[in-house]
Amino acid sequence: MIYSFKGHIPVVHESSFVHPLAAVTGNVIIGKNCYIGPGAAIRGDWGEIILEDGVNVQENCTVHMFPGKSIILKESAHIGHGAIIHGANLGRNCLIGMNSVIMDDAEIGDECIVGAMSFVKAEEKFPNRKLIVGNPAKAIKDISDEIIAWKTAGTRLYQQLPTDCHESLREVEPLREIPANRPKQEDFYKTLEEYRKNK
């Protein structure tokens, strides 16, 4: 669902995919190869929200801010299921863990990882490549090249997902029994531990 608000109409690049059960409102700009999952709300009614190329905002996330603000989710930012970004700016190729909350005027540096269920206070600033966890969140260590490579590979899956959705996602009636020729699920991404074993 795409909504205009006070003359602002969202701009969504044709290569991106906004799920029909997501809501994108007002002063929002979405770049190339972005994925917006079902239940996500990107609400540019009181300010501007810019998603650079390759950003994903997964299921049930909220992106909003106080009036008059402008926020940027930089290229390849990865927003995990249920996270809330309220008036914060996110660095390039960062990962925001599931159910985390990032508050107003906070800044997450490039290639940072925010652990699941973390709470980043308003106006907190984190430099590049930090692992950020807790409530209130603190940087506990640097992020290695190995972790960034693994995270980047995961984000690439979400950057391919818009194309896959445009090509194959369809509303259907459910089957009433399991067909004999049911397709096998692909195995194309490993947990971090599996990744390390197979390097």
Number of strands: 20
Total helical segments: 2
* Overall 3D shape: globular
Helix-strand pattern:
EEEEEEEEEEEEEEEEEEEEHH
What's the overall average pLDDT, rounded? 95
Helix content: 10-25%
Strand content: 25-35%
Distance between the termini: 42 Å
Largest sheet: 9 strands, parallel
Overall SS class: alpha/beta
Radius of gyration: 17 Å
Low-confidence stretches: none
What would your notes on this structure say?
By secondary structure, this protein is α/β, with parallel strands linked by helices. It has two helices and 20 strands. The protein has helices at residues 145-168, 192-197, and strands spanning 2-3, 11-12, 17-18, 23-30, 35-36, 41-51, 56-57, 62-64, 70-73, 78-79, 84-86, 89-90, 95-96, 101-102, 107-108, 113-114, 119-120, 125-126, 130-134, 137-142. The strands form three sheets. Strands 1, 2, 4, 6, 8, 9, 11, 14 and 17 form a nine-stranded parallel β-sheet that branches. Strands 3-5-7-10-13-16-19-20 form an eight-stranded mixed β-sheet. The radius of gyration is 17 Å and the shape is globular.
